[in-house]
Amino acid sequence: MRLEDAAKLLHGTFLCGENQKETEIDRAYAADLLSDVLALTEERTTLITGTISPQVVKVADILNVIAIIFVRGKRPAPNLIEYARCLGIPLVFTEKTMFETCGLLYTQGVKPCKNRPVCRLK
Amino acid sequence: MRLNELVDLLALEHLTPAVSLDRPVTGGYCGDLLSDVLASARPDEVWITIQRHINTVAVAKVTGIAAIIVCKGIRPNDDVIHKAEEDGIALLSARESAFEVAGRVHRLLFPEGR
Amino acid sequence: MQEQAGLPPEMSDRLVYRVTAGDVESGGNVSAAVKSELKIRGLPEKIARRAGIVVFEGEMNLILYANEGGTVQVDVLPNAVDIRIEDNGPGIEDVEQALTPGYSTAPEWALELGFGAGMGLVNMRNQCDRFEIQSRPGEGTWIHCVIERGRDAAE
């Protein structure tokens, strides 16, 4: 589904990157903990999170996350928004909970990310 | 829906067999930040998380949630499992990611949307 | 993507960064810089991403746990990216335990900022082709990661 349709479904607003509203979002990952996000193996994921510390955007940039949806009505600080804008990562803000956000997107066919086993012996 | 039905439908692993699953489930809470959970999770919701910290048990008790579902095949330590059993908190394990578990739980609880 | 035959002499192939303990706001700046530096040097996205993840986790550990901070050193070699992260902090009591997914010693305040998943060292190790860690209580911590560069374009 397109990012703008997701935003509408979530009664959300774009904090930045509205020019990318036609981006197709194929898969999503929901996480509050940064190292959990960093364990993502797939690129072009949409991140659903309630963590608004600036590291979220830095991590998203490392992983080539294509959009971040901030849930639970937690609005990130202006400098985070600005940083995301500079990096070209669209941010959507919704009052809905992470549970409802996941539920709604999942029902619309947004896929989960493939799981990498938690322990990998090297 | 009853918790035991949910567990069966999603093939969740029940880590605390001493705790009864015969209780209602009315919704879900997804997240890993304990203060957010304390502030927002409601009684009889299932808590979907990757937290395996022992504090989750106390948080579950305080909020009255129906069960904790730990995702991605993450297993809490034995001490966490013991505490959950002692405190009557159902601890469940899912192989899938939080997004997928939340999605599937949501679909089961709210098939017509909400 | 073609590998460069060699680096221009004016481009240093060693990057060293100092990370200050407790400076959470800056957390992630070094990894962002490293990823960017690697891409400038023509390394493929995949390699830059793996290095970015390794440095991010290492950087956050220095900020959260190494009471005097520490250093991140990245060597860009023809056949590998070699990363060393060192500190003179308190050291790790039980390295095996620290390498267990989900084991975290993050302080209370950090947990609320999204830290403390207990996956930091696991994530680092998963991104490297070679990973070594040495640490003892009172003697600081030394981590060495090597990410090998492929010989063909499909790296």
Structure description:
The complex is a heterotrimer of chains A (122), B (114) and C (155). Chain A has 122 residues and is of the alpha/beta class. Chain A has a single domain (3-112), classed as 3-Layer(aba) Sandwich (Udp-n-acetylmuramoylalanyl-d-glutamate--2,6- Diaminopimelate Ligase, Chain: A, domain 1). Helix content of chain A is 34%, strand content 17%. Chain A is built from five helices and six strands. Chain B has helices spanning 3-9, 34-40, 55-63, 78-86, 98-109, and strands spanning 13-14, 27-30, 45-49, 67-70, 90-93. Chain B has five helices and five strands; from the N terminus they run αββαβαβαβα. Chain B is α/β, with parallel strands linked by helices and 114 residues long. The model of chain B has no long low-confidence stretch (mean pLDDT 94). Chain B has a five-stranded mixed β-sheet, with helices on both faces. Chain C has helices at 29-40, 45-65, 95-98, 108-111, 120-127; strands at residues 14-19, 70-76, 80-87, 130-135, 141-148. At the A-B interface, β2 and α5 of A face β2 and α5 of B.
What is the 3D shape of chain A?
A: globular
CATH class of chain A reads Alpha Beta
Poorly predicted runs of chain B are none
Question: Main interface pair?
Answer: A-B, 26 and 31 residues
Largest sheet of chain A: 6 strands, mixed
Strand arrangement across the biggest beta sheet of chain A: 1-5-4-3-2-6
User: Any idea of the CATH class of chain B?
Assistant: Alpha Beta
Query: What series of H and E elements makes up the topology of chain B?
Result: HEEHEHEHEH
Would you count the extended β strands of chain B for me?
A: 5
User: How much beta of chain A, percentage-wise?
Assistant: 15-25%
What does the overall shape of chain B look like? globular
Q: Report, as a whole number of angstroms, the end-to-end distance of chain B.
A: 15 Å
The CATH topology of chain B corresponds to Udp-n-acetylmuramoylalanyl-d-glutamate--2,6- Diaminopimelate Ligase, Chain: A, domain 1
Identify the notable features of this structure and list them briefly:
heterotrimer; B: 114 residues; alpha/beta; 5 strands; 39% helix; C: 155 residues; alpha+beta; Heat Shock Protein 90; 5-stranded antiparallel β-sheet
